[in-house]
Every structure is written in C-alpha cells, then in structure tokens.
Backbone:
C-alpha cells in the first residue's frame, strides 16, 4: 500500500529556491534589455556620477566662452590703448616701390592728430593745385622742393604729408623719414574728400 505524502521543503531550501528565481529573473531582464539596446538602470551611485558628468560638459562650454570673451576684451583694449593714453598714432607700415613708410588714414589722422597732437601738416602739391582746395592747417611745400626746405620743418614734431592721389606724398614721407623725421603719409586729398572730410578754398 502506497501512501502519498505531501512533499515538504526545508525552510532553508525554500529560501535558496526563491533567491535562485530572483537571480534568474534579473538575468532575463538584463538580456532582454541588451537585445533592445537598453541597459538596466544604474544604482544610486552610478546615477550621481552620470549626473555630474552631464553637468560638467555645459560648464566647460561656459568657461571656454568666458575665456574667449576675456581675450577679445583684452585685445580690444590693447588696440585702443594708443588713442586712450596718448601713445603712437594708429598708422600702418607700408612697403612698396616708393619705399617703407607710415601710412595713416583720414580717420586715423583726425583721431590721432587733428584734435590734440602737435604736428605739421604739409601739402606737397604745386601752389596751383593748392589754390583749388587744401586741408585746413596745411602748409605748402612741393615735393620737388622738400629736401631743400627741410630747415623749415621742426624735427621734434610729427610731420604728416599729403598730395592729390598719394604718389607724391609717398615720396615726401620717405624723404622725411630718411632725414630723421617722424613722418606719416596721409595719401591723397581725393580720398580725404571722398570720405566726407572738409576742404578749404572750394
């Protein structure tokens, strides 16, 4: 005679079976997540680490932007320093067939010389050309006479020269520079007028 008795599991055995089932369930979820391209959610510590990494990227971008802005401000301040503190005029050195000279624009002349700095402005055209109009404050010494009349120009002040189109003023600036003068080539009165600056005698 066979007696069917219910199977009894030891409490410890039941606990182990439950653990095994939980582990199998977790492994099954992870595998299904990998197949779908998803990863299981990280723990609290991993979440804090990921959050810090995500915040670090925009912070770095902000710092880089601020650094670029500071550099731009410094460069602008250095560019404006000559005008702000009475330094050298904003001229550029030009080298061509006429030689090497300091070329200054009409705007640069007005900003650096006309309003404050002591200087000599020389019109190197002929007297007949000057009669048709000249820049206020200029004296007339034709370029062909300039070297012979250098004694008329003080050597302790900048000398700015101009002509009709810029060719003779380039020659004049080179003559002055080769004789130790601080010379600046303003170019031609045509450009001066074209940019809206006044001419006397017209």
Residues:
């Amino acid at each position: 005679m066979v007696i069917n008795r219910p199977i009894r599991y030891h409490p410890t055995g039941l606990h182990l079976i439950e653990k095994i089932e939980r582990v199998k369930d977790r492994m099954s979820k992870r595998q299904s997540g990998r197949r779908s391209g998803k990863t299981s959610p990280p723990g609290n510590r991993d979440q804090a680490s990921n959050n810090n990494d995500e915040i670090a990227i925009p912070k770095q971008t902000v710092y880089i932007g601020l650094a670029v802005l500071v550099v731009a401000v410094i460069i602008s301040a250095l560019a404006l320093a000559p005008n702000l503190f009475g330094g050298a005029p904003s001229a550029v050195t030009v080298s061509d067939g006429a030689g090497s000279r300091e070329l200054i624009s009409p705007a640069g002349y007005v900003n650096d010389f006309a309003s404050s700095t002591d200087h000599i402005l020389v019109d190197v055209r002929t007297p007949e050309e000057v009669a048709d109009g000249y820049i206020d404050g200029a004296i007339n010494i034709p370029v062909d006479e300039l070297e012979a009349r250098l004694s008329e120009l003080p050597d302790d002040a900048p000398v700015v020269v101009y002509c009709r189109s810029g060719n003779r003023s380039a020659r004049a600036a080179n003559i002055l520079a080769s004789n130790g003068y601080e010379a600046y080539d303003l170019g031609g009165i045509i450009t001066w007028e074209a940019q809206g600056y006044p001419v006397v005698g017209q």
